[in-house]
Amino acid sequence: MKLSIVITAYNEPRTIGKAIEAFVNQKIPVSYELIASAPDEATERVIKKYVKKYNEVNYYKDPGKGKMLALNKLLKEVKGEIIVFSDGDVFVSNNSIFE
Questions:
Q1: What ranges in the chain are assigned the alpha helix state H?
Q2: pLDDT band at residue 95 using 50, 70 and 90 as cut-offs
């Protein structure tokens, strides 16, 4: 089984890193991917730092035409059987995925 975590963000360069860290610092007992998406350059720069730091983190360029379009495009990219959606300013609790 594979898990996909999708984080969408817009103009959230100050919080996206914490949102990503909240997931990658968990003990996730299955194979997973984390895809972070944003249309703005400031948030994109932060996400790309995490792409270099963690193998599980990937970046998807949001076309900037609304969250629904971005999510529909992202759903074609995910590989997980279970998908968790989050946002760039949401910080999940420590064991939220395991629980």
A1: 16-24, 41-53, 67-75
A2: confident
